[in-house]
Amino acid sequence: MDITQADFLRPLTQQASRTGLWLRAMQSMPARHMAEIGVWKGDFAQEILAQRPDIERYYMVDPWARLPDWNKPFNVAPEAFEAVYAEAMAKTAFARDRTVVLRGRTMEVLDRIPDRSLDFAYVDGDHTLRGITIDLIRLLPKMKPGGVIGGDDLSNDPWQHDARFEPTLVCPFAIYFAEAIGLPFVALPMNQFMIQIAPQKGFSFTDTTGQYRDLSLNKAPPTLHRVAA
Fold this sequence. Notes:
The chain is α/β, with parallel strands linked by helices. It has helices at residues 6-12, 18-26, 43-51, 78-91, 106-109, 129-139, 170-181, 222-228; strands spanning 33-37, 57-62, 99-103, 118-123, 143-151, 184-188, 192-196, 204-207. The longest helix has 14 residues, at 78-91.
């Protein structure tokens, strides 16, 4: 599989939802063992597990806990997180024999996934610079050669939320990570991205959206835009 080929990418760009996009992509890749980092209420896991009965092991990685050093809108109260965790477990209960719940931060739990074991991983967790750095670097040894890392929130505006919150820096870090390692990178609609573990192909950057021509971080927060206006 070559994730940069037009005949592979074209159907992905025509999907109406991010889950539909990834289900279509997974038709062309093995996915016996996969991980999701950042599960939240379990909607993505529920649909993937329902549509892909061939998945044998699905690692669900999420702290489901209020974190003192994470300044993002979803850092809700502890009791709210318990309700979110319960909802995720209920939605994926039908596939309990195929799921492994790793409740904790990436640094705390990812070593419980064997190295070179994952066909596919989906990253939708801590989108701060610290978070995406840790997630991608710690995830890389867990991937099989030829496997795929997908992810969410490749927003080309670091101020995805308002200026009270830590900026979202999946973009450009994920792109620069692929460049540093020498891996093909594809930017997809709905702020999705894909990295193939294929160092023999070298780094390439395919932008299917036209939204990533300028990767500069020199973008003022919304409050500063208003003051300037």
